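Co-fold these.
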Amino acid sequence: MVRVNRKIGFVWAIAAGLLWAASPLFAQEHGQEQNGHTTGETHETHSEGHGESDGYDAVGTVMNHIADANEFHVWYNTHIALPCFLYAPAQGWSFFSSGKFEHGHKAIDGYVLNHGRVNRVADPAFPKGEVHIEGITHQKDTVLKAGKEKVVDVYFATYEGKSWLLDKPSTLDGGFLGGGITSFYDFSITKNVFTMLLAAVLLVFLFTAVARGYRRNEGKAPSGIQSFFEPFFVFIRDEVSKPMIGEKHYERFQPYIMTLFFFILFCNLLGLVPFFPGSSNVTGNLAVTLTLAVFTFLVVSLNGNKHYWEHVFWMPGIPAWVKIILTPVEILGLFLRPFSLMIRLFANISAGHIIILSLIGLIFLFGKNGESVGGAVAGGIIGGLFTVFMNLIELLVAFLQAFIFSILTASYIGSAVEDHHHHEHEEAH
Amino acid sequence: MTAIFFLADFSVIKPDPGLILWTSLIFIFLWFFLGRMAFRPIQQALKKREQDIQSSLDEAKHARQEMSNLKAENEKLLAEAREERARMLKEAKEAGDNIISKAKEKAKEEAVLIMASAKQEIQNQRMALITDLKNQIGLLAIDVAEKVLRKELKQDSEQTKYINTLVDEIKLN
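Predicted complex below.
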């Protein structure tokens, strides 16, 4: 009975929020509710009594929403299954659809779905094949790491009354950020990969259409979609590539800059769409921005001319003792530039998602998780209004960050291919 | 609050090898596919169009320049033609005047000439007339004299007397 009342409270709160804000994170609000249900058993079976089980875990919800997932949560009870490509050194490759997990109720070859993400039971005694599990439990362990006590989340799958420790997918942070190599690797088409593929399909579809327009309208005025995208091309060319790379070299790098700009832009914009095909936090995931930054690093380094490397390793025209200080700084700079690209894009997009999700979370915080309808309405109004405001800012940020990433990349490329004039430098020093 | 923050799994900062792999694949595909199929052709088309526009503008400017040149030339030609016409008219008028005055002069001369020859003729005629008259009168006089003499000289005295007078006259002469 209490559940039903809560539910009505929720509906009211959400309706009010929507009415006021047409909140773009509608699906995600439901997502919170959904989480409450599917992991209902989890909360009930929490062994360690740590105050969060009944309340609304704002941070956990936000973190869960910006994280990658192996299934696409669309609506209340609707999930879109995504293909899983998993590799565990102990048992080789496994391929199946994430729908087979039944949202965490089933284990397949030792893999289970925990909060939307594939985890693995590392214990070889766990049965292979499809088995029904009773639930996933959660506890906080204190581990001693580098002389400091740290509290970490540990998850267990309950099967036949026993708790089996779950491993998260491997990550490449070397354990510094709380991840590390575990017993398996996840190469699945995750929510983020799905969105990237969608962005790729959209880009291919749009730009082949635009290119067709240029072929068809040769010698004529641009029309339709072609004229819509033309200002972007001209802008990137005249405001980014040409001034940054220089008249002589810019044409070679134009496709790279363009791809970078539009890929980031489309991923950012799809991330702002609050329902099914969008909502993934693609460019707010460090793996994605890391990859893009590495590409920029490679393009810059592979195209660096003699003068560029000379300026990095042995800056001409300055005393030798300064060079000894300068060279390490320059070498550090080689890596700091892509590093800054990676962090800037990641932080901007992640922060945007976190802020919007937090504002939506006000509904649940003010509503005391469904007990106070008035509070939920107030939260809906306040959160909704701020969300509209934030979404507009995020729309700007989506364009701005794509632009910044590409203009900085262009400027790094420009410094690598620039024809240096030694005499001028020497005189200047 | 901070405790909760660190408890929550901030998974987006942990680079997932799968996501890196897929991002790389998708991005490389887009880079090469879009570069080849869209961005390069579009860039070339834009460049070509800009060049076309520039050359059309240049051409138009050139044509306009030529037009104005042509117009100036036409005006010059027209002015020249007008001048030429005026000159020709003037010349023609002068020529006409000249012809008229010359003709007048010639006519005057001719008239003088005619008058002179007419006078001469009249003179000649008069002289002929006078001569003729003189001859006639002479003959008449001779006739009369003959008759008179015949009558007077019927007597010998008379004849001698007369001969004497004549001789006297001859002597006197």
